[in-house]
Amino acid sequence: PGGEARGDGGAKGDGDGGHSEVGGAPSAARPASLPSRGTASGGAACLLVNDENPRLPEWLAYHYHVLPLRHLTVAVDPASRSSPSDILGRWDGMIDVRVWGEEDYLPESDGRGPIGRGPCDAGDPKNKQKDDAREQYNPDDCLWRHRKRQRYFVKRCMSDFRARNMTWVLLVDVDEYVAFNGVEGDDPDAPLDVAPGGVPTLADWRERKYSTTDEGGNPAIDVYVEGTLSGLPREGRRGKHNGDAERTNRLKISGADYFRGPNGVAYGNVVEDGVAGGEFFLRDDHAWRTATHMPSAPPGVVTIRNSRVANGTMSGNAYHNTVFNGSTSMLDFADGDVVRFRTNWREAPVEIRAHLGGHLVHSAPPHSRTYYVEREFVLWPPYIDPGQWLEMRRRLPPPGSGRTTLDVLNAELARLGDFGRETLGPCLSMPRLLFGSKDSLPGDGSGYVPLAPPGFRDGDYVTLRYRHHALKEGHVNKYQKAIVDVSRLPVDYFDGEAESIHIPIKYHCRRDPPRWSASLLRVHHYLDSWEAYSYRNDARAAKRNCRECYDEKGKEAAEGSSDVVRHWLGGFVAAVGEAKAKELLAGAGSFVRLE
Q1: Which residue has better confidence, 577 or 369?
Q2: Is 201 left (phi over 0), alpha (psi -120 to 50) or beta?
Q3: pTM greater than 0.85
Q4: Strand 279-282 versus strand 359-362 pairing type
């Protein structure tokens, strides 16, 4: 009853010969409470800036109108040659802005050693590092320090907003703009929800890439996939069984598809082994499935709260029964202690990834112990399938409607009902779409129509000037960004540093890029003019001074066009008045050369 998941494999003893490991000081008899619902009005954002004054006025005005942005924390990169203070000061009384220095969020050191604060000269040879060692500890490497700064800032910023009772926090850069991802004619195919008949599934799969050369001696990339087999049409054929580890040969895909895309290595797609033949369905490992669950623990079974499964280890806070009476008569730990036990799961069984939890887990023999994994809304959200995403996208308001991002999120949460807050979020990963530097002119056949209200020019604002973009799900768009409802997450989720700016919260934010057709929101990323592209003085200065790189990106970002975000300025001017709008937007797009 309720579905049982077995985990076999050794682990350190816990004092009574079992397979639990108790760590940390005992906590209070009652478990840590789930987060309260945020009540502060408006949206929030965390923004790390470096010489962004020409971009900042438009970014602030756009998100003030579209999100709506009412709370902002800004961290200024120590390499920045300009201060955003004057621009931020214009918003006094409209946006609650707080400016942080490194001392407000970046520790001097962590478990790996000193981090390094202050400016870093990317032109100094000693501050450069090999591309294949970017994640190795090296406080002299400017790019390494830049990423450390990002990771600590977003975690500390989200923690602060949670303490201030905020809900949704936007995590994008100043050249990125959140937008509704409505249904359009050039959308990629939606991902499959299940494998086609006769096609086995690869679960917990990982992509592996290797540099090589093609038949003409040109650089190329071979792509493989490895994961766990399930759904085999005929078990035992060629010695393969469900649950076996599988590694494909080189996949039969084009170079343009290797990163992601409707024909590439992405969840919901079917890929083909280019050597041995045979197809494999790549499961959406982030999707949480429904399953039968038990409403409470059976008598005498230890309850696990705040449970997590990672790398074959389950951990959580252990309680002797569901009323948490503090008894220690059964086992050698106090209620609330952290318990960990090792399994040999190649993937977390479907019962553990289940709707609201409520399942029994068995540790390994010979000292088997049974645990009840409690149903927890924050950890076991129901799943939204591709068809439901399509319905949600069809309900998105048309451009210029005046409805905000939070209006739509709150409406969809209400529509989803009792478990809405556990279904939509708490982290929404948003695909990016790169907009290039190709201008549009009236009568050029592209459908361009000027949309700036009287007294304003399209050419001063990237969101109005640039309409041409890359292929959706194309490689050049790179990785996702996120918006997080911090009110739903426990306080300790915000400790330390984020895994990356693209994955700010583990377990809840996608590790792999979200599929375009299964995303409610998207992020427009603007390449802008060469003058703007090369303006920053940051850790990636070598790439920003590469004109060839810039031109190549511009070519790739000219495959389609969109006017989705171009209506915002008229609504913003109408809302705040023409005089105030001109004051707030002064200097937008003016890239005065800095020393």
Answers
A1: 577
A2: beta
A3: no
A4: unpaired
